Give the backbone structure.
Amino acid sequence: MKILGISAFYHDSAAALIIDGKVVVAIEEERFSRIKHDNQFPFQAIEYCLKSLGLSIADIDIVAYYEKPLLKFERLLETFVETYPFALKPFLFSIPDWIGQKIKVEHIIKNTIGFKKTIYYIPHHTSHAGAGYYTSLFQRAAILTIDGVGEYQTTALWQVKDQILTPLLSINFPHSIGLLYSTFTAYLGFKINEDEYKVMGLSAYGNPIYKTYIEKLIDIKPDGSFKLNLEYFSFQESFRMWSNKFEKLFGNPRKPNAKILKKHKDIAASIQMVIEKLYLLILNHLYNLTSEKNLCIGGGVALNALANGKVYKQTNFKRIHILGSAGDSGAAMGAALFTFYRIISQQAKHHHLPSLALGSSYSDEEIQTILDTFPVLYQRYSKENELLEKTSILLSKNNIIGWFEGRCEYGPRALGNRSILAKTSPRYMKDKVNIIKHREQFRPFAGSVLQEQIHNLFEVPEKNHASPFMNFCFQVKDNKRQELAAIVHADGSCRVQTVNNYNGRYYRLIKMYYKHTGIPCILNTSYNLRGEPIVEHPRQAIEDFIKTDIDYLVIGDFLVTKRTSN
């Protein structure tokens, strides 16, 4: 049974192919189009999914789409009626897009890509819930799905027993934690649906002195239910997220690329604190409703690693699973998985998804052909140990390494297949990598740590804690802050990726590095420059290597240097 899952037309369009309930290939459209967070229909991603397995669209049994477009359009029309005449301009602006493409999903699937069989439209939050649960190890669990907005839902609570997802409670548009956070993202001069993590990073540098101001914007109940005070928002009726009343409360917004002031840091700290408070109230209520010890979280808000790191200490959940692609790209996978396990094969036990290395890969022969077109020097290593030994020594000597290995990852995080790597100390290594990527200096980096060593470096809930998708921030132990100085954030935390045998060569590299340095952790960031998607093709990796101060590139079995290097 081959099911193709698709997400499109909001952000992070993607395609995922599952066979008999197992995810075999998944990739975002942005990797091919080179448009970051590309929201267009994922023609190239679909083509890759099919081509990589030698399939045609005729071989697919079912297409699962990640939401119900007509229901979403209904909500758009309702919003327009309720806010008329204020919403006239944005409504007229959006209508051509809806009439031209978004409402014609079935036409695109049947006529443009030529699929003639069954199409299932899975509700947006059900797709998120499916992505969270059906990739986990759990048989029973509580589930929270939380984002900007699906069709109507913005927050949903679920319980799952015997593979059956049962909805418990939900909150609908316009009341949305995701839209609240995005309002402050835009107000602080960053891009919505792209830069929310910048607000999270900036929050560590401020004091939450605007917390009481933000609490005027949202009515929070003890059970975590909430309502936005819509007098402070204008996202329903204009192109701007906030109203004049919001601006009177907080002052003029920061312009993009303007200097970041103390006020901006304090506002970031305040919104992060309010979001964390609300997030934890919702989760505690979910626990009270279900008494489940296992938790899955899905939707864009689930990528708030700072909030996630507090769930273990401030709720009764013992095991937490958050898919690395928890946002809309992952919903393509979730739609396909839900279709298989709840509609097609209701008795099947689902497969755990231990790795997100689900995308494209290139042979050494293909890589060498491309290397020969660039002014670089390279050496091919026939023995992996020799390559890893050389790379780990280079890392230990403060060199920055581009690392291109195996299949590219699905989701927004580089997990050791398309990464830029560096030593975790001294502190200036962080600055060097930020300069290479043209990133703001306030932004932190993650650490990839051997799973069996995580408890020695970080304050984690259990000795062999697993965080394979880099979705949790934990405090760095006091006695380790010097040797991890480049990945310790201003609040003493670090976003952590645990690495084990599922990570293949990357795991073996860190083990080798540990042997040389006594430090079982390296700095890991995605292999891309500011404004670019993560590199997909060897050519992109080599081009970024040449035009930056990355010292060495390890790509496949090749160690690459620049002609000008010594």
Q: What stands out?
A: The chain has three domains: 2-135+323-344, 172-322, 364-562.
